[in-house]
């Protein structure tokens, strides 16, 4: 029960998911997920294609409707029909496999768009923040470049900067490096790594097992819409308990 649709309650955890179910028609894709994520925690989600990883992330900012269960993010109960989704989404940034930058806008303009619309400050302030973000992702010299003039890795770093521009408390990454040429994966993972060390709360769906092992506080292995197993990277990669986890890891490691 929330006291108000717009005021976050005090929270001990940044994300609290209980009994989350999601169906598309008769296809139940998430079959009761329970997940609690603390402030500053980095959780990597791994698992075979089709296991519901993207759907899970999309339920965390209600890009997908929630069929049953509760999802509380930064104190906002997403199953409360009065919840202000625009407000919630300022707390949660999301980065996808494909960058979805506006092709007719420069890198700087792409980053400035949301904070200008949301009146996050004067135009000069928003611009200064956007420039700082470009510097943070190592692209100060690309402010005036359009997406077509950028490499895949550069585009994804602009997309991350754009997500950070509304100053979110939580970042969700859905296979942010899967569409990149191998030589560009590292530069994007480095930006995510930096965010982790700055204490950003993150849920990272990834196929990069080395990265998950290095950066995650916790790794969740999903299959067929359930959490099969979770633990520290040492536990999950070093000593998986479930046969399905062992099978998956034997194929990808
Ligand atoms: P993953 O990210 O682990 O590969 P997804 O969450 O994308 O898995 O998909 C899980 C299942 O949900 C798949 O069977 C997929 O076909 C189905 N699914 C995902 N999105 C939709 C949708 N918008 N409509 C119908 N089915 C969907
Ligand atoms: Mg997916």
What does this protein structure show overall?
There is one protein chain. The chain is α/β, with parallel strands linked by helices and 253 residues long. It has one domain (13-250): P-loop containing nucleotide triphosphate hydrolases (Rossmann fold). Helix content is 36%, strand content 24%. The protein contains 9 helices and 10 strands. The protein has helices at residues 53-60, 85-89, 107-117, 123-136, 152-164, 182-197, 209-215, 233-238, 243-252, and strands at 15-24, 27-37, 42-46, 68-73, 76-77, 92-95, 170-174, 201-205, 218-223, 226-231. A 6-stranded mixed beta sheet has the order 6-7-8-3-9-10, sandwiched between helices. It has a 4-stranded antiparallel beta sheet with strand order 2-1-4-5, covered by helices on one side. The N and C termini lie far apart (44 Å). Bound molecules: adenosine-5'-diphosphate (ADP) and magnesium ion (MG). Residues 24, 29, 47, 49-55 line the site of adenosine-5'-diphosphate. The site of adenosine-5'-diphosphate has 10 residues, from α1.
- CATH superfamily label: P-loop containing nucleotide triphosphate hydrolases
Order of strands, main sheet, comes to: 6-7-8-3-9-10
Named at the architecture level, the CATH assignment is: 3-Layer(aba) Sandwich
Which percent range describes the beta-strand content? Answer: 15-25%
């Amino acid at each position: 029960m929330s006291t108000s649709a717009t005021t976050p309650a005090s929270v001990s955890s940044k994300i609290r998911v209980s009994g989350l179910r999601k169906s598309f028609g008769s296809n139940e894709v998430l079959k009761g997920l329970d997940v609690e994520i603390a402030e500053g925690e980095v959780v990597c989600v791994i698992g075979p294609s089709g296991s519901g990883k993207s759907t899970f992330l999309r339920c965390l900012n209600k890009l997908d409707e929630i069929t049953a269960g509760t999802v509380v993010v930064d104190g906002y109960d997403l199953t409360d029909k009065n919840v202000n989704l625009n407000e919630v989404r300022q707390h949660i940034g999301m980065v996808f496999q494909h960058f979805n930058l506006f092709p007719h806008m420069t890198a700087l303009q792409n980053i400035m768009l949301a904070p200008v619309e949301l009146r996050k400050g004067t135009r000069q302030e928003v611009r200064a923040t956007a420039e700082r973000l470009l510097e943070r992702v190592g692209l100060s010299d690309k402010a005036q470049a359009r997406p077509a003039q950028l490499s895949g890795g550069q585009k994804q770093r602009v997309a991350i900067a754009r997500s950070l521009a509304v100053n979110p408390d939580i970042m969700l990454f859905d296979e942010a490096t899967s569409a990149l040429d191998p030589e560009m994966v590292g530069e994007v993972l480095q930006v995510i790594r930096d965010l982790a060390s700055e204490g950003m709360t993150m849920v990272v769906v990834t196929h990069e097992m080395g990265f998950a092992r290095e950066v995650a506080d916790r790794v969740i292995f999903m299959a067929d819409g359930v959490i099969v197993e979770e633990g520290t990277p040492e536990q999950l990669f070093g000593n998986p308990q479930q046969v399905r986890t062992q099978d998956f890891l034997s194929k990808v490691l």
